[in-house]
Predict the structure.
Amino acid sequence: MADTLAPRAVIGVMTPAMNTVVQPEMDLLRPSGVTNQMQRFRLGGDQVSDDLPQEAAKLMDCNPRAIAVGLTTDAGPGGPDKLAARCGEVSKHIGVPVLGASQAGYAGLRALGAARIGIVTPFNAEVDAVVKANTERAGFHVVAIKGTQAPSLPAICETPLDDIRAVFQQVAASDCDVILQVGTALPVVALIAELENTHGKPIVACNAAVYWQTLRAAGITDPIPGFGRLLEAH
């Protein structure tokens, strides 16, 4: 029998333990007939997270169709590839698709036909250089990048929305054709439509991208209006 509150699908959502942004943002995006079921994990170790496999195994008790991992690893050298490998290992172990936010962002850029990329991050210039290198390694041409310069990981969740708007304005002033946002603790999803209308450029926000990719992996193809071109048209 189908889940009463989720007759179409249960979606698993995993987030770093300190992140208070992933859960509410993905709940904003939830289609009718779908529920999101949460599990938290801790960062660290040589493989992104030592406890990700066991926490994903616990999440399988509620029978999710696919799992979104609300984490980007763009701030470390080779980080997106490490996260993709870790998600692949976990997926093989538990038997459902497991999608990470870094590769989902790249998938969103490709879906939009992006060529010249602007990037918004929660980081400082030194870390932004690593993000830029990772993005270019994935095959994109980065023409602008700017961070909100949060002083710590927990502080990213506390970034004022006007500070986020200001950084998007700086990046949008470049000749980029799409803006990628990384850092799943930076609250951007509720601003996507506003920012696209203001700047006239599509925005691939990492939490929206990984939820979009996870829904599609679960066979849910509904357009999701009100959160930008990626979710409405792809």
